[in-house]
Write a structure and sequence with these properties.
Length: about 350
């Protein structure tokens, strides 16, 4: 399948051109620093973007691993001086905090030509960096445990309150992406929205949870062992386990899953803006994006791949692969959510964790 995808794709590249800015065509001895997530994310990015980019331009890529909160803290600490990164990857909710802190630079399609192919949903409305991948937050569940208990597969966020599942569901910690998506879902189920965390936390406190996992590694163990039967999780993480043979299923609830983005920004304090922009253009180019789809099961932000993925339904079902898929996912208003998060954390600690 992969060979066939790439066969179709190469012809398209020859017609489209690679959209690379002129400065990337000139050999350079610059090294740009990229704040990223580590692990398979870095490996895929370097395989399909970094290594090819360095070969063509001479610009070297230095990867600096960490979580998004730590990257933001380092950028804030260095404000007014040379930034510790030239490019930084941040979750969409954390990008909003970084914009408010004044540590990111604005960009446009004239800076990054491939931005003209990026879905509107993956563009920052205020002119900061675009999304470089898309994911969904939905429901992961242990198919074997559900069958043994005679419980129908989940179809709704409300199924977390099913009495038959009491003591068998995991609720991700509030500092995780999954936990924040679930809070947004609970807020809506309780008749509120991002501005009313008290409604969502009170709703979550009604659940008799098995655990409150703080990482995807813990969720993997809980679901594969059967200690937890159902947990909110991200599509790429679940499908990697399904493809490895675990008896898991993944469902986007009838109310809609939640849309997540990994945003990519040039920093305000970089001394290598032109080189950073050229590499950002490479990352949201179709070859790099296709590598992420195939090896990481996260959705592309470029609309160039939608007609190709439509021919591979077994692959497309694992990720947001089309404009219709994006419209089926709920966004989170991160400006409001972040403003209310300190209150949500206090309520979480009192009403959920301490019970």
């Amino acid at each position: 399948m992969i060979k066939h995808i790439f066969g179709l794709f190469v012809g398209g590249l020859l017609l489209l051109g690679d959209g690379t800015p002129a400065q990337a065509q000139q050999k350079s001895d610059v090294t740009i620093k990229v704040g990223t997530y580590g692990g398979a994310f870095d490996q895929v990015m370097m395989r399909y973007a970094g290594d090819l980019f360095t070969t063509r331009t001479g610009i070297k890529i230095q990867i600096i691993n960490g979580n998004a909160d730590d990257h933001l803290a380092k950028l804030v600490a260095a404000k007014g001086r040379e930034a510790p990164y030239d490019i930084v990857f941040l979750d969409d909710g954390i990008q909003i905090k970084a914009i408010a802190a004044g540590v990111l630079g604005k960009v446009s399609a004239s800076d990054i030509p491939n931005m003209k192919f990026v879905y509107d949903e993956a563009l920052n409305k205020d002119g900061y960096g675009p999304g470089m991948d898309l994911y969904s937050c939905g429901i992961a569940y242990n198919i074997k445990k559900f069958k043994e208990a005679g419980i129908a597969p989940p179809t709704s966020w409300a199924d977390f309150w099913n009495p038959q599942l009491a003591g068998h569901v995991g609720i991700p910690a509030l500092e995780t992406t999954m936990g924040q998506c679930f809070l947004a879902a609970a807020e809506r189920l309780a008749g509120g929205d991002e501005s009313t965390p008290e409604k969502g936390i009170a709703k979550i406190a009604e659940i008799k949870a098995q655990s409150y996992p703080g990482s995807s590694a813990t969720i993997t163990t809980l679901l594969s062992s059967g200690d937890a039967w159902m947990i909110p999780w991200l599509n790429g993480r679940v499908w990697s386990q399904i493809d490895a043979g675990q008896p898991l299923g993944y469902v986007l609830p009838k109310e809609g899953g939640y849309r997540g983005l990994t945003m990519m920004d040039v920093t305000a304090g970089t001394k290598h803006r032109a080189e950073a922009l050229a590499f950002m253009n490479e990352i949201i180019g179709p070859l790099s994006q296709l590598g992420m789809v195939i090896e990481f099961n996260y959705g592309p932000t470029t609309n160039l791949l939608a007609p190709i993925l439509a021919n591979y339904p077994d692959l497309a079902k694992k990720l947001p692969a089309s404009p219709a898929d994006l419209k089926a996912l709920n966004p989170i208003n991160w400006e409001i959510f972040n403003a209310k998060l300190p209150k949500a954390v206090q309520l979480w600690d009192r009403q959920v964790i301490s019970k």
